[in-house]
Design a protein that fits this description.
Keywords: Membrane, Transmembrane, Transmembrane helix. This is MARVEL domain-containing protein. The chain crosses the membrane at residues 16-40, 61-84, 104-128, 140-161, 181-205. By secondary structure, the protein is mostly helical. The chain has one domain (17-46, 58-209). It has six helices and no strands. The protein has helices spanning 7-45, 62-90, 96-124, 136-160, 167-171, 176-212. Helix 1 runs parallel beside helix 3, helix 2 runs antiparallel to helix 3 (96-124) and helix 2 (62-90) runs antiparallel to helix 6 (176-212).
Length: 231
């Protein structure tokens, strides 16, 4: 078992970590929002704004969902990091399973922030939005993978503290409110990913239907009063 630092040292380390997180998380959010505005300005200068010709009707709103996932993911980076640091400083974690759950949720948050931020830029970029990496199939794969990460972490946390939201259990559990917030934010992430999966699955089905049953061609060239010219 690791030696427990004295209370003053633990308090200083905890305060230092809080200060670092309080500066780092808003800075990352600011850089992310700045990258979005830069990409939109770049698309505007090239006169290639988001339009119906570049994106599917439902996927046009995908950047909004990705932005929400990134911002909530930044919160989820801060919360498990702080709780894990407190457990490490004071050696007062309830069981080993809760450490595994927090580490898995921290990994899920880092994965979501990095990949969702990249997908945000890709889907609004005038060039990359036409690349196969921004296709519906690619985003569906990402949604399934991210959903699996978050569900695994939330399930392990729920199993490690089965009655987390019961008052008597929470009163006896150290950092219970923080754990409740972590569970709530993880469920929010899972809900958004589930909604996104359903939307993109519908878009994939719609695209497949258009390929299997293409609409008949129509126009002046096929009108009865405009027969094709002989070669």
């Amino acid at each position: 078992m690791a030696p427990v630092p004295n209370p003053d040292e633990a308090s200083n380390l905890s305060s230092g970590l809080i200060s670092v997180l309080a500066c780092l998380i808003p800075l990352l959010a600011f850089l992310y929002v700045g990258a979005i505005f830069w990409t939109l300005d770049h698309a505007k200068r090239r006169r290639t704004p988001l339009s119906k010709t570049t994106t599917a009707p439902g996927s046009r709103y995908a950047p909004v969902g990705y932005a929400f996932l990134v911002l909530t993911g930044l919160v989820m980076i801060a919360l498990p990091t702080w709780v894990l640091s407190q457990y490490g400083l004071h050696d007062n974690y309830p069981n080993n399973h809760i450490l595994v759950a927090l580490r898995l949720l921290l990994f899920s948050a880092c994965w979501t922030c990095v990949t969702a931020a990249a997908l945000t830029i890709i889907t609004i970029h005038p060039t990359y939005s036409r690349h196969p990496i921004s296709s519906i199939g690619t985003q569906l794969i990402w949604l399934v993978l991210s959903w699996a990460f978050w569900v695994s972490g939330a399930a392990v946390l729920s199993n490690s503290v089965p009655q987390l939201f019961v008052g008597s259990v929470c009163d006896a559990l150290v950092y219970c409110r923080h754990l409740q917030a972590i569970q709530i934010f993880s469920l929010i992430e899972i809900s958004v990913l589930t909604i996104g999966f359903v939307v993109f699955l519908w878009l994939a089905w719609r695209c497949a239907r258009e390929v299997w049953h293409p609409a008949p061609l129509s126009g002046p060239a096929l009108a009865p009063n405009n027969p094709p010219r002989p070669v």
